[in-house]
Predict the 3D structure of the following.
Amino acid sequence: MTSATHSTLFPQVPDSADAILDGLDPEQREVATALQGPVCVLAGAGTGKTRAITHRIAYGVRAGIVQPTSVLAVTFTNRAAGEMRGRLRQLGAGGVQARTFHSAALRQLQYFWPKAVGGDLPRLLERKVQLVAEAAARCNIRLDRNELRDVTSEIEWAKVTQTVPADYPAVVAKSQRDAPRDPAEISQVYAMYEQLKRDRTVIDFEDVLLLTVGILQDRHDIADHVRRQYQHFVVDEYQDVSPLQQRLLDLWLGDRDNLCVVGDASQTIYSFTGATPDHLLNFRTRHPRATVVKLVRDYRSTPQVVQLANGLLGQARGRAAEHRLELVSQRERGPEPAYTEYADEPAEAEGTARRIRDLIAAGVPAGEIAVLYRVNSQSEVYEQALADAGVPYQLRGAERFFERAEVREAGVALRGAARAGGNDSLLDDAQGLPAEVRAVLSTKGWRSEPPAGSGAVRDRWESLAALVRLAEDFEQARPGATLSDLVAELDERAAAQHAPTVQGVTLASLHSAKGLEWDAVFLVGLTEGMMPITYAKTDEQIEEERRLLYVGVTRARFHLSLSWSLARSPGGRSGRRPSRFLNGLRPGSAALGSRSAAGGGGGIERPAAARRKRRGPALCRVCGRTLTDAGEMKLMRCDDCPSDMDEALYERLRDWRAVRAQEISQPAYCVFTDKTLMAIAEAVPGSEGELAGIPGVGARKLGRFGAAVLDICAGGDGVEEPAEGDEEV
């Protein structure tokens, strides 16, 4: 899901430059019309910053003040760059270059390398982890998988901060950076990694920036060429600029100052990659005559969500906090944020899944709901809980929409049908564009009803369904559009990476949720040690964790839920505490240094499970090890411990589940997941009490399916006799 896809309708291109300014608020209009000299836009979350800067570029182009080919707009992710290109195209300014720093630098490097260096540009190393592993081995340094990932990230940080291997230990000591290994060892691995790259004539993504900087510094003729090409620069998310990116930007600019930067110091959450808000905060010092505009009207979130976001930043400390923006919601009032305390992590996941199911039943689309957590390893228990609840989900960070195999295949089929026109028999009975698309995609696996279960088959169907919805929106916006028109639209969207919406609850880390928004957001696992994360030690690291939570809160438009659990596993020691960042904000809590409890309606909800007498820890019934994985706790054994499952019973249960799922028109996992069926086949329960004791068999499923399951376990076929009065008429 991308923030560009909240609405897939196709707005009409404004018919004049002045029409581009229609609908902008006074501050956004000030941004859009400030086309000369340095401009600094301080934009809070949800205040329409992308709208302001894209309208600024489009207004300049449509008014004839700026040539589209003379504008370079840079941001930090391909998704954000794609969104910007899509919006500019809709505003009639399609010739503008909107790229990431790396993409813009690579394009220039490829063009100028033969002239500046000679020969072909070295091959780009897509993933550096394997080469870092080899470098460590050459240095006789053993790194496990987590250490390898951390050392690789550390090398990336060193390069974007322009730190060479020999200087790395001293720089770490001076900056008080918490290195994942001994700095001298990392320095060795870093140096060997660089040597291996030279030996094999490859470069990495950081080298793309470093080499471009080197060429522009050394070759004034090439620098002049670039500066003649680009006269106007726009930098989005300027608080995330690294020293190396700032150096490249300075070289692009030369002695000119037609630069517009947009950022929010309160959303600086990538310092571990070398990002720093200093460039944003020092902008007026470097450019004393800069136009500064503050965007604080929040069009995204309700007053309740905005109040919590402002409260979070109100407790912040440090330089970024001194420049915080006080948001003012422009929306109608909504529900209060919900605070929920759970006994353990599986209970928290199951409770979250239940609430999500209720929201979907109330009309909130699954694609407008997100579960956000601090680290990716937290996702597994939520994947399991959503599957148990019959809720479709998607993991943020999967491959790009237009690069999926099924989407590429669908594009080929649609293109072929468009070329064939009336000669394609598939389209004989299709009336209208959406019907034609449905007819073509039916040959690729699309059906009107989603397939049962999750996994690859469901993912494929969701991709094709997104294309069908896109066709429906396209025809609604442009009556009479043909299949050829839609194919052209898809090509333009693919080039801009402007993907349609794929339905399904989003599971994402807080970092990867930056720049996105949903109607309903569940912030989970908000305990000390996770938020802030345990390795955040310094005051600045703690403040960055607070800003990360702020980013999570401001992703929500309407519904916001914050939760934590007192223990990791059922029956575990309940020694956890809610995040300190919620002190003074959640009902009944006191701010740090305060004796009074915070006001506000409602209170912390504690589900019945949190009040029950605690059982002992979940232990593997084979080896006795304490279980923490949700799937293992369902089986009551380690995944790799021997299983005494009754295979024949398991197959009978699967057959019964398939029939039952079809009867109730639900995916199979809505009846029971595979892990729950395995647990039943291993335990072979003989009573309702024994069946109820199996994780995954709650009271609702016990009442609905319990009699049939017990009948199958006893050797029956699970077919229940109809109750009196239930006979078919």
Observations:
- The longest helix spans residues 456-477.
- The mean pLDDT is 83.
- The chain is about 45% helix and 10% strand.
- The CA atoms of residues 365 and 503 lie 8 Å apart.
